[in-house]
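stuck on this chain:
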Amino acid sequence: MKNQIFLTGPGRSGTTLTNAVLSLHPEITSINSWYALTKKPVFNFLGERMRRVSMLRKYLGKARGFPRANEPLQLWRDSFHNFWNAVNDQEPLGTNEKDRFRRRITGIMRYESADKSFMTKMTGPPFNRVLRDIFPDAKIVWVDRDPRAVVLSYIKMGWVGVERVSRDKVSGMTKEELIRESCHRYNHYYDLKTKEKFDYTFLYEDLVEDKLSAITNLLDALGLSKPPGYLRLIEQTTVYGNRNANYELSPSEYDLMTTLLSKPLKARGLV
């Protein structure tokens, strides 16, 4: 394979859309849901070919079972006995496990041409130390969004706290508790992110404002070409603005959220 590309971000920030769009680039191979289901590289290859047929995506893309670019966290958990301890910098990954994991990725890529890059996404905290420990030359992109939009989406989805909690617990929390826990989740990822170096930071707002420019700048940062056919596909892609901007918050609740997010908001120049 030519290179390894990893998309990371705090979740609810546009990583899924960015992964889906980039995964259709002709110089990229991603892990798709057929591999996640079967663990067979040949099915990943077949799924990638199926996803790249525009008519199939148009009529079957939303159908259950259609291969989609996948976030393979289970693959990492299955490969490393101490995956989360390594992510939290509590202990290193085992050498034999790293070698075995590289072979798994090489196995996925063996049906592809040597000039293709491998890509996948991993949302949540920055995984830089783990990723660069396995693939020292990998390109790592941080995908982010207005922190308020991310937190509002956390509240809407019930993603509170650094570790997700049960729906029953979420239903018993007050709105202020939800705001505080969701802001804590984003700030935790933000603080970790500031300690890491990324090859590129991709902002969802840039994608909304001018998707073609946003994607072409990302392609330049990743050393990927800009085929006319692929750029036409980008132009046809639907990108929604911030639909959670005022998700059931009173003015005082919105002010609380803004106060709790003051550090990342100031860093982005959003206050």
Summary: The chain has a mean pLDDT of 92. The radius of gyration is 19 Å. The first helix runs from residue 15 to 22.
